[in-house]
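Predict fold of Glucose 1-dehydrogenase; 269 aa.
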Amino acid sequence: MTLPKLLVGKVAAVTGGLTGIGRAIALEYLRHGASVAINHLGTPDESTQLEELHREADEIIINADATEQKTRFIAVAGDISQPETGTKFVAEIVSAFGRLDIFVSNAGVCQFREIDLALLNQTISTNLSGAFYAVQSAARQMSLSQSPPGGSIIGISSISALVGGGLQAHYTPTKAGISSLMQSCAVALGKYGIRCNALLPGTIRTQLNEDDLKDEEKRRYMEGRIPLGRLGKTADLAGPAVFLACEELSGYVTGAQILVDGGLFVNLQ
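Predicted 3D structure, encoded as tokens:
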């Protein structure tokens, strides 16, 4: 069955879009007809992943329309923890595609180990401060610099915003902060027709936890707590991200938190 394309003509951006959840969302937006920009850190060791992503993006675009000449995908390097990166990212998007309709703040770091000052500062500056800077730049574009104003901003939070965890005192507050940021943005930006919501993934297999999940006993334990009986895949976040991006489906949804966790949270109560 061929599903309808829900984002044709829209321009979407995803921070941290090179791998994991961000990559899955970016590719799904392309499949739904959007033009897509991703932000990535820009280190030399990303070159292979970037080539692969460009190749997959090109395949999606060609399969969608073999006659299409212009690209619908760009990648912009920059450290999202720096205030100027969000501004530069949005400027590159507008230069390439003319406007910005959907912004996914996804970039983040996650290291569960003994917490020292360097780890604390890195986690806060990337996960929370970086999200603030980037969302602020997107909101300014959506509200004041394009006509008509409006759009959808999606913050990738976590089930960790709702529960604590060992060795996570540096991480869980940043994810709670993302949910809170989206709530405040929903209030501030509603008058411009901008909807702001948070997605809260549960345990999703990504490059951030692949080493941890190699422990078979730990993996089975984690799966046993999930009512759907499996760990999440990055693609599990793509559908909800399309829902929140699509005005026709979620036009009256703002300030919301949507768990994408296979039922884990309700089973922890």
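The longest helix spans residues 117-144.
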